[in-house]
Specification:
The chain has about 575 residues and is mainly beta. It has 6 helices and 40 strands.
Length: about 575
């Protein structure tokens, strides 16, 4: 009776053990780490001690580990410490995704890491890496060199660096330290760079210097360059120097195929040849045609030693003047400074210029390739040798400021050839206490200073004397001359009228002269405050006039037709250009 419980416990543990044994998976060996010998002319086994046995193979050796094939002239396999050493014509075919070549190989069979030395080449079919020392991880498909290497892509681009990390399955290469890229089209230098051999896209992750075949230089800290499609994007306020022009912005996008560059965010173009600076929220530029379109609060600065000119508008456009003249006779009316006709371009013309900007100025598709080459070369040479072969246009809400002269208008045309500002549609020009209005105003500059002006149709000049007292001259056309930025004299022609206050030497008023004549000459002189005030009026023919006592009429009654004192539109400082 005492043995019965013990018997049942024994049976329980016996069957439980069998059940657990049946439920366990059988232990399998890792065949991916086993090196198989596929071919060799000679095979020897050498036992160095009780625990170590070497396999020595020679002559057209071929081995396999998983999906990786090894070729060499001879090799030694030590299975105890999991090392394979190969000599002569070493070739690793890693599952047909990458191929490595060298004179010597030391391979860790358990970790699947290869160390290749002397005349090392690693290729993914798109690019070839050459170095003298390379570590290649068969598992991760990563090749590493730390003592210098170079990558050749499409037999054209050559990338070199001190260190490099080659992800053969992703086709990505991370270059580090003393990175250089040489291509027939450009040269690149950086501390770090990412490059994809399949897409041929280089990504910038450190400060990078680029110089292309036209000697254009680019400095950037981030972005990419698509070498295949010639497209690029540069970030972190890159700087592009193209001849006398320097471009910068938060981001610059370029397309070398179309020659179009887009500068986004705090865009700036500085032209040392023209002594101009353009600032805007966004700028489009075409390097082939030399055109430029700035918008989002654009500002152009014409640099001078003491009195720079600041210009703003809704949109600023610039191009070569020689290209504009090719448009035909219709342009002559726009640029003819001696024309007596109203030069105001129609609203539709202004609108079409902006809308068709990319079609007209950003494309050369209308010419044949030979014509494009000849015209493009001629334009490039002209633009480099003749800095005056340019013009600027401002569209809508044009405002101009300098210390001596200020102006506003709906639109503007400025030629660097004749240095003339052409203001259209309700333009106003101010000089000290003098205001000039008309349908069209041409403001001539000399040595980058206001020199003279012409006013066409509804010409009116108003000079503030004090309070509500204003000297006024009205005519069909006016020609004025300035000295040191101040009005010196004006000739009014065609139904000229004037109202001016007569003053004694002590500035006391004696009366008001209201007269008309075919031609009037008005002369200005420096007053007690240092400004330029109307001094005298000379009537040349058909004079009619009245001399009014000061109390005969109120200042409001002494106003010529279309009188408007527009001081509220006047930019008082350069900071008032955008209000």
């Amino acid at each position: 009776m005492t043995l019965k419980p013990l018997y049942f416990f024994s049976l329980y543990f016996f069957f439980t053990g069998i059940q657990r044994a049946w439920s366990q998976e059988p232990v399998r060996s890792d065949t991916t780490k086993k090196v198989e010998i596929l071919a060799a002319r000679k095979l020897e086994f050498l036992k160095t001690n009780d625990t170590t046995e070497l396999q020595i193979l020679a002559g057209n050796v071929k081995l396999r580990q998983g999906s990786t094939l090894f070729y060499c002239d001879s090799c030694i396999i030590n299975n105890r410490i999991h090392i394979l050493e190969a000599f002569g014509n070493v070739h690793i075919n890693d599952a047909d995704t990458a191929n490595a070549y060298s004179d010597y190989l030391r391979y860790l069979t358990d970790k699947r890491v290869a160390y290749l030395q002397k005349n090392v080449r690693l290729t993914d079919g798109k690019a070839t890496l050459t170095t003298n020392n390379l570590e290649y991880d068969v598992e991760t498909k990563l090749g590493i060199y730390t003592k210098g290497g170079k990558v050749v892509n499409n037999k054209k681009s050559v990338l070199s660096s001190t260190e490099g990390y080659y992800y053969t399955d992703l086709k990505d290469i991370y270059f580090k330290k003393n990175v250089e890229l040489n291509d027939p089209s450009y040269y690149l230098r950086s501390d770090s760079l990412l490059y994809n051999t399949e897409s041929e896209v280089a990504r910038f992750i450190a400060e990078t210097f680029i110089k292309d075949s036209s000697n254009r230089t680019i400095i950037t800290k981030e972005g990419y360059y698509d070498t295949k499609n010639k497209k690029a994007e540069f970030g972190s306020r890159p700087v592009i120097q193209d001849g006398p022009r320097r471009y910068t912005g938060n981001t610059i996008i370029t397309n070398d195929s179309t020659h179009i560059s887009q500068i986004i965010g705090n865009a700036v173009i500085v032209d040392t040849a023209e002594a101009t600076t353009v600032i805007a929220g966004q700028i489009l530029a075409n390097n082939a045609t030399g055109t430029m379109l700035a918008f989002n609060k654009p500002l152009m600065i014409i640099k001078q030693d003491q009195d720079s000119i600041f210009i703003t508008a809704d949109t600023l456009f610039s191009a070569r003047l020689s290209d504009l003249y090719k448009a035909g006779d219709s342009v002559k009316a726009l640029t003819d400074v001696d024309s007596t006709k109203t030069l105001t371009p129609s609203d539709s013309t202004q609108t079409d210029t902006v809308k068709n900007f990319s079609k007209r100025d950003f494309s050369d598709k209308s010419q044949s390739p030979n014509q494009k080459s000849k015209i493009g070369n001629a334009k490039s040479e002209n633009s480099k040798t003749d800095s005056t072969d340019r013009y600027f246009q401002g569209f809508y809400h044009v405002r101009i400021y300098s210390d001596s002269v200020q102006a506003v208008g709906d639109s503007m045309f400025y030629s660097f050839k004749d240095s003339v500002f052409r203001l259209y549609k309700d333009p106003v020009v101010w000089s000290k206490e003098n205001q000039v209005t008309g349908d069209t105003i041409l403001l001539f500059t000399k040595n980058q200073k206001a020199d003279r002006f012409k006013v066409f149709e509804n010409s009116l000049i108003i000079s503030k004397v004090q309070g509500d007292f204003f000297n006024q001259v009205k005519s069909l056309r006016m020609d004025g001359y300035l000295t040191d930025g101040s009005i010196d004299s004006v000739r009014a022609r065609g139904f000229a009228e004037c109202i001016y206050y007569i003053q004694n030497e002590d500035s006391s008023f004696t009366g008001v002269n209201q007269s008309s004549s075919d031609i009037m000459d008005i002369y200005f002189a420096t007053d007690s405050s240092g400004g330029r005030a109307l001094q005298r009026v000379v009537f040349r023919s058909a004079v009619k006039g009245t001399l009014w006592p000061m109390r005969a009429k109120t200042p409001e009654e002494l106003r010529l037709q279309n009188f408007k004192w527009l001081d509220n539109r006047r930019p008082k400082t350069k900071y008032d250009l955008y209000q």
